[in-house]
Amino acid sequence: MKKKYIDVLAALFTIIFAFLFGYFTKDIKLIDVDVLGGRFFPNILSIILGILGISLLITSLYKIKVDNNNIDNDVEIIEDSSTVVTKSYGKLKVLSRYPDIISIILLFIYTISMKYLGFIISSVIYLFLQMNVLSIYRKSKNYLLYGLVSVVVPIIVYYIFTQIFSLTLPEGILG
How does pLDDT run across 86-134, given as a tens digit for each residue? Predict the structure, then answer.
């Protein structure tokens, strides 16, 4: 089975799972002391998961339509773009071939460094590096945008979790 059809099946599975996950959150008992209730976060997760499943379904159906149009027009599609990247980036051969493995390594280092550096500093470093790894196929990179997003997003997330949800995040060297 081709990848494009596997994406459709994965999208349908994700949508069904999100629906079932949201449905079974009704069994969570509510406590009067809790302001948002125990169902709040699971409901948010099921909604986000459902939105992601629908977006995956739409994009995979669009890819199938584009692929079918390209086959009808005898247009050749190159599936493996790593060869092109390897030729154009030369020195970044390892990075361009294994961004998934590098992402896993970065995530592992991120989780370990959070204890020592704290949430904000480790998140800034991780996001900046991860954006560079994921944009390896782009010819031009906007380092200023990567830096801005890497600084702003962790601060907003830290504020939301500490002030709104009253959760503590690792402070590290800042605490």
Answer: 444 454 555 567 788 888 999 999 999 998 999 999 999 999 999 988 8
Longest CA–CA span in the chain (Å) reads: 64
User: What amino acid is encoded at 134 in this protein?
Assistant: L
Nearest of 28, 25, 24, 21 to residue 50 by alpha carbon: 21
C-alpha–C-alpha distance, residues 57 and 63, integer Å: 10
Band of residue 71 on the pLDDT scale cut at 50, 70, 90 = low
